[in-house]
Amino acid sequence: YKINQESLLTSGNTKTTVTKVENGFEASILFGESGIALKYRVLLTDQGIKVLLNPEDIQDYEPDTGAKKERPKRLVSVTFFPFLGSTKAGAQDGYFLLPDGDGALVNFQETYENIISGYQKKYYGGDAGLNDNFNNQFYIKSPKELNYPLYGIVHGVKDNGLFVYIEKGDCNAELIMNPAGVRTDYYYITNRFIFRQPYRHKVNSTTSSLVMQEAITKVDVQMNIDLLGGEEADYLGIAKHYRNLLKEKGMLPENTVSEKVPLMLDVLMSSVKPGIFFNKIVPMTTLEQLKDIHSDLKASGVKRTIVSTAGMFKDNITVKAKDRFHLKWKIGRLSELTDLTESMRAGGDLLTVEMSYYAHPYKSYAGIKPKTDLIYMMNKNYLYYEDKIGLKKVKSTLLNSRGFEKYVEADTKELAQLKISGVTMELPLGASSYGDSPITREKSFEQIADTVKSTKASVGDVYVYQNQGSPQVLAGASGMKNISMETSLFPYITDSVPFTAIVYHGSMDLFSQTLNTLGDSDVRKLKMVEWGVYPSFDLTYEDPDKLLYSGNWYLVSSRYSDWKDEILETYSFVEGALKYVTGETITDHRVLATGVVEVTYSNQVSIVVNYTDHAYENGSLHVAPGSYEVIKQ
Predict the structure, then answer these.
(1) Which of 204, 230, 248 is a domain's end point?
(2) pLDDT beneath 70, residues of the chain
(3) Domain count, the chain
(4) Distances from the Cα of 201 to the Cα of 218, 380, 381, 523, 621, angstroms
(5) Which of 19, 367, 419, 537 is the most core-located residue (most Cβ within 10 A)?
(6) Residue 160: strand pairing partners
(7) Which of 248, 274, 302 is the last residue of a domain?
(8) 395 part of a folded domain
(9) Which helix (H) or strand (E) holds 527?
(10) Which domain holds residue 593?
């Protein structure tokens, strides 16, 4: 296949008809070069304009039956107003706001002549249902995906800006941003809505070809472009604008924040390593030891602890559905689990279990039907990934959103019997599926979000990982884990900003990446205070040396006795600031000087963070180097 770009100006034969409609206009276009026709609307709103495109209003070009060697021409994607808000390097102060990581700024200062490609990412990652990997194997990874379907443009801070938000069609859209020097002399940013994608068609066991999707994906497009001015025209104003938008739509979580600063512990209960003839269970934290750890931290001043346990059940060694909730005897007894769960809950703490819903590793569970409940790709193959559990190689097919719903329904009954009132979910891929009952990517995300919401109603608190979130999914969650507090390392990204925290602090608990797997602990503690993010640690009772050759080999330092002092020091440092602002929203975020930042909350409490190696003085305010001060009005 060959993809050509065509704009309104490409051919003199292009015909455009504009018709006035209520609050806007309707444009009908017949492209002169391709013969493709489409119709879209632009409507005025209170804040700006709204662009709407119905897939039924797209007509591909079909040649006359008598035409020789002429092939049909299919629409692949559409971009609206690609140069809206563009500017030359250094022409004015300002930046683009990208939803990359936790929030990234691209300042309009430099020309990047040595960069051959710009920024191009699909919202929520690629569609796995159109996987182009030859062997249909999926490698689980955690890139910094775009979790919010938006971008911002600021032309002069506190002067003028645009907020672009995709209300429909985000699951089949990608963000494109090119700095000056890449393709043109302009900084420009736009959304591309994708109606057809290439996928890998397997011809036989050794041969495949990359082909273009034949049928159009039915994507309803609705994109809002809001005009911002004054106080709204910066990254803070854009984040607050988005937060208000989510609130209006009922998509901000409610009644989920902790009243006291929480500490998140990801506790590995056991792992599996190969023995001489059989797999061997490696106990890392028994229930009795977990009880001691919890009591010790409580006595040492930790106000609230949320424990997420992994490796508690036998299925991770047997890979059998009957063992999915069968407690390993080396970990403890069922009575110990229920007693610990209830005692933690009575003290205001929470014990959760981590449940993976990526894959279907069992022969049978929850009434799963392959062509209905698993990701069945466009190329008529199942998506899978391979894992090694000790001596055993396990090939698991991946759940689609319908299979996820079935798994959760079956798990909910078991969790209730264990008196577990919280789960950490590894969510399935938001992917299209082409089996007996096809699922669009948009429908997949809706179903995942509905399942998360129903789990919260039936089980209790639900925690999800940041890189798996979408606005719909986060609306039903209690907290977000693995907040990266950083961005992708592209040379044109000039600053990182706490976009996630400005939007969600005060609505849900936000937790850092596990700190014993990262460096720069002093800087990260300051950043948690600035961004309103709570600390998180990987933990085991036993020495992680025992995990060598196991599936958890990457835990090189997690023993509680080694990390206790660091955990308490970090918690005390962060809690000393954030205890004044739990449940509050961020109302201001500004740089006072190089390396000094002030964050203000809705209760008028301000926190000034000093990243530098010298004291910051401003009138009566004194902030020690590498520290912070809390200002209460």
Answers:
(1) 248
(2) 66-68, 132-144, 205-206, 390-391
(3) 2
(4) 21, 9, 9, 48, 65
(5) 537
(6) 155, 229
(7) 248
(8) no
(9) helix 521-531
(10) 584-633
